[in-house]
Design a protein that fits this description.
mainly alpha, 280 residues, 74% helix
Length: 280
Amino acid sequence: MLPAAIFSVAMVAYPVIRTVWLSVHNGNLARPRQMNDFVGLQHYQRLLGDGNFWHALLVMVIYAAAVTAIAYGIGLAAALLLERRSAFTRISRTLLTLPWAVPGVVAGFVYVWMFDASFGVTNFLMRRLGLIDQPVLWLLKSTPAFVVVILAAIWKTVPFNMLTHLAGLQAVPEELREAARVDGATSWQEFRHIVWPALGNVRVVSILITTLHSFREFGQIYVLTGGGPARATETLSVQIYTESFGYFRFGYASAIGIVLLIASLIFTVATVRTQKTSFF
């Protein structure tokens, strides 16, 4: 066990410790001679008064909540529809799983093309259907850009939720469901009292992983909008990149990263405890 333990500590603990160290030092490439100067909690104090940080935090929370709720609902519905094994469901499962295999950066470029104001297929179809008279500036206005970012994330995340729930549905005892049907239970009653409680563990895993992935999502958002327009789609992950490689403020970016880590840990603990109390 010792080699595995050493490897785990080296791969997980050291980067976290290094990030904490950077967050309490100057860490600014604009002042290379002061890179290692200890500044204590100055970066964290600066966060409290940084409007961009609070805005990015709010954007991240709304983005994660929307993606998790919608992707979870669609994934669960797809799993229920494709639960039965047949040639059609096998083909459908394969097709619905494909978006998960597409790299986020590639998916981002596809959505850039789809929602391009001049040449995008979305505006083309909407004009053909008579839904719009003028092209919609999807990626150049705040609200449409945020909607596109969420849609891209949902498209990428639904397959994971579908697959986890398909696996969970296979573990539900068929005898219980058959007994419920014999007793006259409707499809809704069967789902509410047998299937839904049995998916408790799957539900926790799906919600946790989807939300945590949304918290740290960077590549797809950066390719789509770069955090714009006017910071409308800038999450904490995008802000960390901007602060690090745009302004070379590694110390300040590390402080944001530690806050994001703490927020993720708090959400994880709260979700697990809530789910255990409510459903198990």
